[in-house]
Amino acid sequence: MNMIRLFALLVKASVRSRMQYKFNFWLSTVLAAVVNATDFLLISIILWKFDRIQGWSLYEIGFLYATVMLSKALYRMFANDVHHLEKYLVSGDLDGLLIRPIPVLLALMSQNFRPMLGEWTQGTIILTVCIIQMLGTGQIGWIAIPLTALVIVTGAFILFAIGLGTATFGFWITRISDLQNLTEDAARTAVQYPMELYPVWLRTLLLTAVPVGMANYVPALYILRHAFGPWLLPGVMAFAALFLWLMFRFWRLGLSRYQSTGS
After folding, report:
1. 8 A C-beta contact, residue 251 and residue 104
2. Alpha-carbon distance 97 to 165, whole Å?
3. CA distance to 10, 86, 98, 238, per residue, from 103 (Å)
4. What residues does each domain of the chain span?
5. Beta partners for 52?
6. CA 46, 49, 52, 53 torsion: positive or negative?
7. Where are the beta strands (DSSP E) in the chain?
8. Residues 77-135: tens digit of each pLDDT
9. Could you tell me where the DSSP H helices lie in 80-116?
10. Model's pTM, two decimal places?
11. E strands of 92-188, at which residues?
């Protein structure tokens, strides 16, 4: 509980620091919302023309798109600088975190708290519209709403685990931005759309080596299509817990190999 209170205080201080530049904060929020809206608008135009892609409707794809966007927003809100570990390794700023009387990962996560208001707004609007439409057609029931909230939280843990594992490689190779583009950005973009679009080898990769498909696609099979059975969501949660535990262990191994810059 002391660690939680300490983390809350550090986050509060980070928010106060960010709000010193209010114009920059609100401008970045608006730009993030516009970029995400334009991205989804393009696929929406295609779907209005062809109705379905590999059997997935516009509203089902919107569900996939919004859930992984909100999971990403939740992950980056509380652990944004895990994704930017490279700058700490290159500049030597990680040394300053090592001497703090709290775990390094906790100190890193509290450095730059980001509300991600643009992503939250955009994702919530898309998800709300899609769920209302599917409720109206009877495709899903009201139970889908709390299940979707659970999927978003579970997905955030999965994305955090992927980001943590990728960042950990930095303790050996330092420069990890290209690797992050592959394992985080490209992989997450891929699962914004149905995985039936991709060849078998890529689907296998997105469910195993970089299991971002477990964050939205697999749970959606049950919520939207009632596939596999009610055991699927607990199975995904168990997978998320195990995967996160393994990445924590990998992080500790990598941190033990860190060599200070001497600064």
Report:
1. no
2. 19
3. 13, 18, 8, 25
4. 2-256
5. 57
6. negative
7. 52-53, 56-57
8. 888 889 889 988 988 889 888 887 788 888 888 777 777 777 888 889 889 999 999 99
9. 85-91, 94-98, 104-109
10. 0.86
11. none
